[in-house]
Amino acid sequence: MDLMALMAKLKLEHLPGSLDALCEQAAKRDLDYRRFLAEALATEWAGRHQKGLESRLKQARLPWIKTLEQFDFSFQPAIDRKVIRELAGLAFVERAENLILLGPPGVGKTHLAIALGVKAAEAGHRVLFLTLEELMTRLKRAQQENRLERQLQQLVYPKVLIIDEIGYLPLNRQEASLFFRLVARRYERASMILTSNKGFADWGEVFSDQVIATAILDRLLHHATTLNIKGESFRLKEKRKAGLVTEPLNPPEPKGGK
Ligand code: ADP
Ligand code: MG
After folding, report:
1. Fewer CB within 10 A of the terminal residue: the chain, N end or C end?
2. Cα gap 202→221, rounded to integer Å
3. Which segments in the chain show pLDDT lower than 50?
4. Cβ contacts of 197 within 8 Å, gap of 6 or more
């Protein structure tokens, strides 16, 4: 059988396109057969991994891509780098534990949630990002259309479900009980990463019902890491920095000097 046909039979999608270049390189570098085979298979593997990652990132519906490398830890000393490094190892995902990021606007909650979502997608996990508002729209529509059960089941499927912006939009009791059903469904099965501008003490208000809020927190926090980010807004810092450049009240440093 000819080489192209063999690769097609073996369903090698990425190697055929790179083969000429690989052969040329191998000849130049005088590679032995084993090394050449390893490089050829590595090319196929890298292509597959990249394709899988791209499709997982697309399915994740992240609003934008942010990475941990882009996060300036020195700006937010309230965040323990070691804890983030530990989380980035994704053992919490393997153990179906939760992560809750609390703090005022602009401290990097969504950034960190996305960055960990990217890590999880890279590691081969299914990820889904929804704001609480988007989640509620899905659940309520499903309930109206008599397919809540199926929707809940679909929302258990991702290994990491990120629910962003809990607290901005108060839920009524019916909505809170839908949220509770989701949390109960995922409990000890798969991880959630939640972000909120409200401390737990205010969740009763967010969910319009202290009893439901307690039941939600009880399950969420049973196996969870909570990061309370008590810092300054990165957005405001950027504005201020920009302000320093244009603000007429801050004249430029005198030139020359000393
Ligand atoms: P939050 O969700 O807490 O309101 P975001 O995560 O949306 O805040 O952060 C606001 C913006 O500032 C984003 O563009 C984010 O990437 C950036 N940002 C926040 N904190 C940091 C940080 N420590 N280092 C780098 N960028 C940051
Ligand atoms: Mg946010």
Report:
1. C
2. 15
3. 245-258
4. 102, 103, 104, 105, 165, 167, 168
Provide the domain limits for residue 120.
61-241
Q: What is the pTM of this model?
A: 0.87
Residues 221 and 112 in one domain: yes
Question: What does the pLDDT read at residue 244?
Answer: 59
Q: In this structure, are 150 and 115 located in the same domain?
A: yes
Which residue's C-alpha comes closest to atom 20 of ligand 1? 108
Compute φ and ψ for 248, nearest 5 degrees. Answer: -70, -20
- Regarding the beta carbon of 167 and ligand 1, being less than 6 Å apart is answered no
Assess whether the C-beta atom of 110 lies below 6 angstroms from ligand 1: yes
Mutate-to-test residue for ligand 1 from 70, 111, 162, 230, highest number of ligand atoms within 8 A of CB: 111
Count of domains for the chain: 2
Give the residue whose CA is nearest to atom 5 of ligand 1: 108
CA quadruple 126, 190, 130, 217: dihedral, nearest 10:
-170
pLDDT digits (tens, 9 = 90+) for 209-238: 999 999 999 999 999 999 999 988 988 887
